[in-house]
Every structure is written in C-alpha cells, then in structure tokens.
Amino acid sequence: MSIRTFKTPLPRIHRGGFAVLTALALSACAAGSYTGPVEVTRVVAAQSSQLGQGTIAVRFAEDLENEAALDAFRGAVSDELSLLGYTVIGNEETASQIATIDTSRSPVDAPQGGSPVNVGVGGGTGSFGSGVGLGVGINLGGRNNSPRVVSELSVAIAARGEGSASNLWEARAQVPTSINSDYAPVEINARTLAAAVFKDFPEGSGETVSLKASELVQP
Questions:
Q1: Do strands 87-89 and 38-44 pair parallel, antiparallel, or not at all (unpaired)?
Q2: Cα distance between residue 133 and residue 126, in whole Å
Q3: What is the pTM of this model?
Q4: At what angle do helices 186-198 and 67-83 cross, to 10 degrees?
Q5: Is residue 208 exposed (0-12), middle (13-18) or buried (19+ Cβ within 10 Å)?
Q6: Is 181 exposed, middle or buried (0-12, 13-18, 19+ CB in 10 A)?
C-alpha cells in the first residue's frame, strides 16, 4: 500500500547554506532570542511491521554543498534510527531499507512594527499525508527584532529499490528561530528536528502537531 508524499519540493540549502546566514547574527546580537514551536507531520503505511528493524542506509534527496549541515543532519538522523532498532550502514546496495533526507533553511525577517507574521516555507501550501498543510500559519511573533529563519527536515523510509510511492513511513518537521537562538546552530538544530521527526515512531496519523524544542533536546 502506498502513501501520499509531499506535493511541493522543499527548498535546498544553497552554497554556504546555514553559514551564509551568519551575517544576520551581527544585527541580532542586541536583540532577544526566539525559538518557536516545532511543527511535525508524520504518515505511516500499512506495512509498519517492517519498520524499526534490519539494516538501513541514510541518503540525501540531493547533494548538500554545506558539509556542516550534511554531517549534522546525517548524524542526527542516523543516531535516531539506531535508537529505534535499526542497524545503520553506509552501503545502499546491501541495506534492506533507505532513509532519504531533505532539509532546508530559509531566512524570514521579523517586522519592525511589532505585528506577528504568518509564513509558509518551501511552498507550504502543499499537502502532506492526509492533506494537512505543513508550514502554513507559523506565528513568528513580532516583538523581537532579531532576524528569523525557518529550518526544515523531512525523512522518508522505503524498502530498498522501492519508489517514493511505496514509502513505509515519512515525516516532515520545521522550527522558526532567531539567528541568536540556542536552537539556531546547525548541530543542535539538526538534533532537534530529527528528534521531532522520530518522536513516537512509527506512529503517523497525517495530523500536524506542535512540540516544544526544549522538550526534545537541551542545547
């Protein structure tokens, strides 16, 4: 049985990726930090008994030129998979399942007038799973002039050789932060999003839930 996948592609991390946003931090030093809720949606197929066991290889949907982001997200996802009972291996040809990662970070400037801003990221009007839109209506506050970014992570697990239409499980999470948030650095950001994606694995109803970053990972 197949499950529906993302209908809109996630934006990619361009050259410099996370590092290119460092310049924004200079204007944020005097401002307070902001960490929004982690919004996550998960969907599981009928063949969930195959999940959480055997060998699995981790790959990216597209190559990342930002090595820090690549290492951080590969490591965070691999660690979560290991805790769930998988044996993570590096050879896709011999793995029984494949976990495909997609990730992005997009800058969003906070307003100067103090009004909240609702944003969508990566074509956030697209549907996922049961049709619940993810990335629509995140409130970035507005009482904080620190520049904001929205970071995203999606993971899809499929049997080796199967296409996306045969995913056994998939999830997508995102979190808005100010540049100077404790959850903005790439390593803690990757760990937080990975923890959200795999929380309560392998459950997945298609509904979007909000989680507190501090309840997932402590920086």
A1: unpaired
A2: 6
A3: 0.74
A4: 30
A5: buried
A6: buried
Asked whether the beta carbons of 45 and 167 are under 8 A apart, the reply is yes
Q: In whole angstroms, what is the distance from residue 55 CA to residue 96 CA?
A: 5
In order of their start, the domains of the chain are 17-26+41-204 (3.30.160)
Q: How far apart are CA 166 and CA 152, in angstroms?
A: 23
Name residue, tokens 């909000």: 210
Is residue 63 very low, low, confident or very high in pLDDT (cuts 50, 70, 90)? confident
Type of residue found at 60: F
Mean pLDDT over 28-56 rounds to 85
The span from the CA of 202 to the CA of 214, in Å, is 22
Q: What is the pLDDT of residues 102-141, one digit of tens each?
A: 999 888 754 444 444 433 333 332 222 322 233 333 444 5
Q: Give the full edge-to-edge strand order of the sheet including 38-44.
A: 87-89, 55-60, 97-108, 148-159, 169-178, 38-44, 205-211
Please name every residue paired with 205 in a beta bridge, in sequence order, or none if there are none: 43
Residue 35 DSSP class: B
Alpha carbons 140 and 103: distance in angstroms, whole number: 20
